[in-house]
Every structure is written in structure tokens, then in C-alpha cells.
Amino acid sequence: MKTQKRQRSGKKGFTLLELILVMVILSTVLAMAAPSLRGFFGSRKTHDEAARLLALTQFARSQAISEGIVYRLNIDTNDRVYWLTSQRKGVFEELETEFGYVFTFPDDITVELEDVDKDDDEMFFAFTPQGTVTAGTIRLIDRRGLVLEITCPTVTESFSIIEREQVDNRYVSKYDR
Length: 177
Prior knowledge:
Layout: H1 16-67, E1 71-76, E2 81-88, E3 91-94, E4 103-104, E5 109-114, E6 117-119, E7 122-127, E8 136-142, E9 147-152, E10 160-167, E11 170-173
Antiparallel strand pairs: 1-2, 1-7, 2-3, 2-4, 5-8, 6-7, 8-9, 9-10, 10-11
């Protein structure tokens, strides 16, 4: 039997120069894309905060109906926090569940409230055992001008998220223009 010699056919792999060239190209592309990615993550923060508020309103409404007690979504715009409470023995107490945390608005989001109930200096949306809720709006505005409204138009409807634009000191739907 003959043994065949293996012949090496050219070189395999990449040279150091080729790897460095690829790294330079990738670094250049990422450097150009970074500013737009920063804006993407900033708007995601606003959307995430709006989604959390919407989830809290849905939870408060369903719990108020099922437990037969009043729930509140409390909002303190000065301290930039919000939390849920429920009425027990005539007093509103913080919840002892994962929904009972005090949540903080991100620093780069401005919060505006419309048609909110007040008790002393506390602002809140009330959810009753009959399924009604305080009709009103929580407006989140990020530093880029994105406006998200968590709004309930009437006492019998649920909250929803609407994206708006600011035009001449008023907020209009992006799709109504």
C-alpha cells in the first residue's frame, strides 16, 4: 500500500491585519449608530413607565371589583413617585403585594396630571367596587418630546395609552394631523 502525502492547500484562517481591519470597520459603524440608539433606549423607558402605570390601573380596578373595596393609584409629582393603596377599615393603606411598591418616575420624564381627585394634598385615581374609576389623564413627556398619555375618558371605561404630539401648546394625536 502506498501512503499518500497530504498536501497543504494554502493558508487557513485570518491574518492579524484582516482582523484589525474588521474591528476598525465595526467600531466606525457603531460610533455612527450610537447617538440614535441612545434615543431609542430613552423612548423605551417612557413606554415601559406607561406600561407599568397601565398595569397598575388594570390591577387596581380588578381588585376593587373582586374584593369590594376602594383602591387608589396615588401620584406625588413633587417627589416623582406613585403607588397603590386600598381602603381597609376606612383608612387607605399600602398594599402588601408586589404591586405595593412605591415606584419612581425616571428623572428625564416630565409628569403632568389632568382631572385627578385630591384629598388634602394627595392626588389619586380612585377605583370603586362598582367598576368605576376617576376619569383623567397621566401625561409622560420625555426629553425628546415623546408624549404618552395614560388616560381614562369616562368613569366607566378602562385606562389606555395614547401617543400624542405637542402642537401650539396643546396635545394632539399623532394620527389626527
